[in-house]
Amino acid sequence: MMNLGRLGAFGLLTGLLVAAGWMQPAAAQGSGSATLDAAKARGQVLCGLSGQVPGFSLPDSQGVMRGLDADTCRAVAAAALGDAGKVKFVATTTQNRFTALQSGEVDLLSRSTTWTLGREANLGLEFAWVNYYDGTGFLVKKASGVKAATEMDGATICVQPGTSTELAINDFYRLHKMKFTPILIQDLSDLQGAFLSGRCDAYSTDASSLATFRFSQGPKADDLVLLPDIISKEPLGVMVRKGDDKWFDITRWTFIAMITAEEKGITSANIDSFLNSTDPDVRRLLGVEGDMGKALGLDNKWAYNVIKAVGNLGEMWDRNITPMGVPRGINNIWTKGGLQYAPPIR
Ligand SMILES: N[C@@H](CCC(=O)N[C@@H](CS)C(=O)NCC(=O)O)C(=O)O
Question: What is the CATH classification number for the domain harbouring 150?
Fold first, then answer.
């Protein structure tokens, strides 16, 4: 007979005890997600964002964090803990955001971060969903007379270090055999100040952020022009650590629930009238039947809690981005010509 050795024999014995129901495997004692268990124990989801970008994450006059990224954090807290208020916002920079997630300082990163192969393959992190389909743009002074990015040979460009914007500009200039001088400034308001004071010819980042920055200038917005060129794809996504698949699922399906709600016309205001819907998709979504929440390690009311507190994807857009004058475009749901398409909840 084969000699199992001490560990092998122990493993076999444990296996038999588990099979016989005398011992619980370690994972079954918790939810199956170390991140969820820790969030439950502390009573909060820790969410990394910027805290400085209008429409995405910026405290209002009452000190309440507002924006698409902030509401994304709230939605995950509503799914995971049943309460959209159980979230702690942690400010991160373009340079320290990945370390914050890797080290466990935050449970997820909802911070205008572009989904790229390099980031997903190299950092031990992964993207659960895209909350904004964006692209790199350029903001210039109207007085410069510049009308297109290809007119900017030899320009100085203000950009934040550690961003995919830096890479996109490099690629664009290489492709067009032009030259530019980057001015790298980490702090966002310093960077914007440098641009406004004329230290650089253009300010480049995700077009969403350029549009909301321009909007925030009030009457002076007319002095600034957002060039029509979008030089790269910047799908901004929500990131989690690799290795906690259950937490990844929770984060991903929270979005899918919000898209599904928009597809079905369910809003934070009318959701209760859907509780006696006869549509099987709606019944599963709202936890009236089936065990969709349980499959995620959550309460079956997980999606109900998300939609009731934060709304569907369109409500989140209208609350945060519409006031900035940015049209929804490709960020709409697929039935309205956009890219947001919910896989089935079944
Ligand atoms: N999407 C790009 C750019 C990210 C980025 O630079 N975001 C800017 C504007 S959208 C930002 O959050 N700035 C605010 C801050 O640094 O606090 C990336 O992932 O690298």
Answer: 3.40.190.10
131 lines ligand 1 (CB under 6 A): no
DSSP for 223-274, written as a single string: GEEE-S---S-EEEEEEEETT-HHHHHHHHHHHHHHHHHHHHT--TTTGGGG
Q: State pTM to two decimals.
A: 0.91
- Residue whose CA lies nearest to ligand 1 atom number 20: 163
Structure tokens belonging to residue 305: 């809690």
Residue 276: count other Cβ atoms within 10 Å of its Cβ. Answer: 10
Measured between its terminal Cα atoms, the distance across the chain in Å is 47
> What pLDDT sits at residue 11?
43
Asked if the structure places residue 1 within a domain, the reply is no
Residue 211 lies in a domain: yes
Q: Whose CA is nearest to atom 19 of ligand 1?
A: 113
Helices and strands (H, E) in the chain, number of each type = 14, 12
Q: Does ligand 1 lie within 6 Å of residue 50's CB atom?
A: yes
Contact 237, 127 (CB under 8 A): yes
Query: Which tokens hold the place of 76?
Result: 């995950």
Per residue in 15-42, pLDDT tens? Answer: 444 344 344 444 446 889 999 999 999 9
Read out DSSP for 11-28? HHHHHHHHHTTSS--HHH
- Using only the alpha carbons of the chain, give its radius of gyration: 23
In this structure, is residue 52 part of a structural domain?
yes
Q: How far apart are CA 252 and CA 239, in angstroms?
A: 10
Q: Is 228 in the same domain as 269?
A: no
Claim to verify: residue 122 and residue 141 sit in the same structural domain:
no
Instruction: Indicate the helix (H) or strand (E) that contains 114.
Output: strand 108-114
| Separation in Å, CA 281 to CA 17, 129, 260, 290 | 40, 21, 9, 10
Structural domain span for residue 186: 136-232
